């Protein structure tokens, strides 16, 4: 019986399809022996990452299905794409690892167009041979421990479309990326690159440069970036004005210049690019009126402008103009025109000579004052505590150990932006601010201190903490204490603004008082923002991670500001305050110990006594671990929205979170605070959960260091930003 014509047609089409499928399958499965050996060698060099589990000499890599941790594409008997990812926060590979050997081996895969090695613990300087991939379009080495500079040879990779090196330890000047004609994406966030702003090519669409050490002005060449849609240069030290052309770039949608040292006004008649949607210029030193095209009440642009001195901003969230004027002078960049170079150099040399002469004079005066003070004390004039200014306190105090100076100088440079200069207050000022310490202004009182709220003449609110000394101390001891305490100024601490020492107490046998003046944070606690329905809507997942990073940075500062550091702090979530910009600040942290007194007659030392009981309830190491543990509890409450009040509740919550990580997203979503549902990337949340569980581990030896915590939280932010960018693009498409 004859077959129908349509049956014969279907049979013919099926045979053609099968033949094509078999030919493509066979070509996809074949790989040259040399390339197979190279992949197996990579397996060993990378110290057998889980992504390669199950590989043998008989494994055909091209036949493996792609997974989140491993993706490999073959074409024409060669590997063309290789993507390997490890666990977030991967530790450095062993000392025997060689990043130079890694790239030597990778160069045997010359057809690579995509190379992505993420969070694998790679360490060491990036070798110059990274350019040995003529067809490479994507290079992603993020979230490793790569150090040193970015090799100049990277500027010769003409095919490169995407360069992602964020989350490493790179430093130095970024090579010229303007010579890469195809480059569209640059992500260098979370390194130590600088000081010059990098040169970018005209094809760049997204440039993420945040959390580096760029300290220059934004160069005029930036106005040529006609394709730029996203620029994030936040958390650097950029100076000078914001170039007007930046807001006028035709394709720009997202601009983040927050937390820099940018100063001056923007032209009022400036016209913005038609695509502009988001501008964050908060935490700078800008003055004047903002252009109408970015004011939130007259345009569709989302604008964040707090922490400046803007006349057009909400005065509650702006600094007084004097703050920005002083900052603009301090951040001014000297001119570099050729005609004035000689004068600048001559002035610099004369300044050095003058400084040396002036220092010699000051040193002689200092020695004279020390001699006079010593004579007065030996004559019985030691008396009650004298009023000591911060500038002269180092004269009265014994020189601190070198380790103290090293730690303080490094830590104090970090995070003090936005605070009024530290100064000594007069007793009359504090009495006027508190209405003679009226009981109506008393906020808190116990055996160690009293806490008052006060108002200065300029209208600013302050908190005054009267510390009761339990024994008499020499002026040198108190001066050294004040000198160290004056360093407790950081963006993520309720910082100390100044001090006052009352030298006119009538009863010489009574305990003396040191008054510390602190900034006032009146926007509520972190817990109130997690529980009160009006505030809760302000803290979505990105804001909560930012708050956790703020607390971690505050802890890191306390641990390094002195040697030994300040640890064992009371990090109850009620002691974490949020200011008007939702910046987290630690309050009620410990204070340094008062130095021991020396008995001039007998040469013996009295036992040192802290100003407050319990300041050193832990040793240094145990104190640091306790701080990490408390931060873990804060993280758990940030994630779940539920306080953990006792050990049994902690054990129950820990077990639930651990189980949810094994089960997947749906189980974890059931434990997460309802307020943040739909605002987090799963990998970002998972990283934070894993970190919280590590912090509250019963085995304190398994706890991460505060540096590891910061690294993982910043990784969580990077994942979240990537997810948010994808969501934004999908919404616009």
UniProtKB/TrEMBL annotation:
MF (Gene Ontology): ATP binding; protein serine/threonine kinase activity
UniProt topology in membrane: Single-pass type I membrane protein
Transmembrane spans: 346-370
Catalytic reaction list: L-threonyl-[protein] + ATP = O-phospho-L-threonyl-[protein] + ADP + H(+); L-seryl-[protein] + ATP = O-phospho-L-seryl-[protein] + ADP + H(+)
EC code: 2.7.11.1
Leader peptide range in chain numbering: 1-17
UniProt superkingdom: Eukaryota
GO cellular component: membrane
UniProt keyword list: Glycoprotein, Kinase, Leucine-rich repeat, Membrane, Receptor, Repeat, Serine/threonine-protein kinase, Signal, Transferase, Transmembrane, Transmembrane helix
Matches recorded under SUPFAM superfamilies: L domain-like, Protein kinase-like (PK-like)
Main subcellular localisation: membrane
Protein kinase domain sequence ranges: 437-715
Localization in the cell: Membrane
PROSITE patterns: PROTEIN_KINASE_DOM
InterPro entries from the UniProt entry: Kinase-like_dom_sf (IPR011009), Leu-rich_rpt (IPR001611), Leu-rich_rpt_typical-subtyp (IPR003591), LRR_dom_sf (IPR032675), LRR_Rcpt-Like_S/T_Kinase (IPR051824), Prot_kinase_dom (IPR000719), Ser-Thr/Tyr_kinase_cat_dom (IPR001245)
Protein name: non-specific serine/threonine protein kinase
């Amino acid at each position: 019986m004859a077959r129908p014509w349509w049956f014969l047609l279907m049979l013919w089409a099926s045979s053609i399809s099968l033949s094509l499928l078999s030919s493509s399958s066979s070509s996809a499965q074949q790989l040259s022996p040399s390339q197979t050996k190279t992949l197996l060698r990579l397996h060993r060099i990378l110290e057998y990452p889980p992504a390669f589990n199950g590989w043998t000499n008989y494994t055909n890599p091209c036949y493996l299905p792609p997974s989140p941790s491993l993706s490999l594409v073959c074409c024409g008997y060669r590997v063309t794409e290789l993507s390997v990812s490890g666990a977030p926060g991967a530790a450095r590979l062993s000392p025997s690892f060689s990043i130079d050997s890694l790239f030597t081996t990778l160069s045997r895969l010359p057809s690579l167009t995509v190379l992505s090695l993420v969070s694998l613990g790679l360490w060491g300087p990036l070798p110059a041979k990274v350019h040995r991939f003529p067809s490479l379009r994507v290079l992603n080495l993020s979230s490793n421990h790569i150090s040193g500079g970015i090799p100049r040879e990277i500027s010769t990779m003409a095919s490169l479309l995407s360069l992602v090196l964020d989350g490493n330890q790179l430093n130095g000047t970024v090579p010229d990326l303007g010579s890469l004609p195809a480059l569209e994406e640059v992500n260098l966030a979370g390194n130590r690159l600088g000081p010059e702003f990098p040169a970018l090519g005209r094809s760049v669409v997204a440039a993420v440069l945040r959390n580096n050490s760029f300290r220059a002005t934004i160069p005029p060449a930036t106005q040529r970036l006609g394709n730029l849609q996203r620029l994030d240069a936040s958390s650097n030290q950029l100076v000078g004005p914001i170039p007007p052309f930046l807001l006028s770039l035709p394709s720009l949608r997202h601009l983040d210049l927050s937390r820099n040292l940018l100063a001056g006004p923007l032209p009022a008649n400036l016209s913005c690019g038609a695509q502009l949607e988001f501008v964050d210029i908060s935490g700078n030193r800008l003055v004047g009126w903002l252009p109408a095209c970015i004011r939130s009440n007259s345009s569709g642009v989302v604008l964040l402008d707090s922490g400046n001195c803007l006349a057009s901003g909400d005065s509650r969230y702006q600094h007084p103009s004097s703050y920005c004027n002083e900052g603009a002078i301090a951040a001014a960049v000297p001119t570099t025109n050729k005609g004035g170079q000689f004068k600048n150099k001559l002035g610099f040399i004369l300044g050095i000579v003058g400084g040396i002469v002036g220092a010699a004079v000051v040193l002689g005066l200092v020695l004279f004052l020390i001699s006079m003070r010593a004579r007065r004390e030996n004559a019985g004039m030691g008396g009650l505590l004298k009023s000591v200014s911060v500038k002269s306190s180092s004269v009265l105090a014994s020189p601190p150990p070198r380790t103290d100076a090293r730690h303080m100088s490094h830590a104090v440079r970090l995070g003090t932006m936005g605070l009024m200069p530290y100064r000594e207050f007069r007793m009359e000022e504090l009495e006027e601010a508190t209405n003679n310490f009226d009981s109506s202004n008393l906020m808190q009182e116990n055996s160690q201190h009293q806490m008052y709220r006060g108002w200065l003449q300029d209208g600013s609110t302050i908190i005054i903490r009267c510390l009761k000394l339990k024994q008499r101390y020499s002026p040198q001891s108190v001066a050294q204490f004040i000198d160290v305490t004056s360093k407790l100024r950081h963006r993520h601490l309720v910082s100390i603004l100044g001090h006052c020492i009352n030298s006119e107490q009538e009863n010489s046998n009574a305990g003396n008082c040191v008054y510390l003046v602190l900034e006032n944070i009146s926007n509520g606690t972190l817990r109130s923002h997690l529980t009160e329905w009006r505030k809760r809507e302000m803290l979505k997942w990105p804001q909560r991670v930012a708050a956790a990073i703020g607390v971690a940075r505050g802890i890191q500062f306390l641990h390094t500001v002195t040697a030994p550091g300040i640890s064992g702090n009371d990090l109850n979530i009620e002691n974490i305050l949020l200011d008007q910009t939702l910046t987290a600040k630690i309050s009620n942290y410990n204070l340094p110990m008062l130095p021991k007194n020396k008995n001039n007659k007998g040469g013996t030392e009295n036992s040192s006594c802290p100003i407050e009981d319990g300041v050193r309830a832990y040793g240094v190491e145990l104190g640091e671990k306790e701080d990490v543990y408390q931060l873990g509890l804060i993280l758990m409450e940030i994630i779940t929205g539920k306080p953990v009040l006792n050990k049994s509740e902690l054990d129950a919550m820990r077990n639930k979170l651990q189980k949810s990580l094994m089960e997947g997203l749906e189980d974890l979503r059931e434990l997460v605070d309802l307020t943040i549902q739909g605002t987090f990337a799963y990998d970002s949340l998972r990283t934070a959960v894993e970190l919280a569980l590590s912090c509250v581990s019963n085995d304190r030896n398994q706890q991460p260091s505060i540096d590891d915590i910061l690294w993982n939280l910043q990784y969580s932010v990077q994942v979240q930003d990537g997810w948010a960018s994808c969501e934004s693009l999908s919404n616009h498409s």
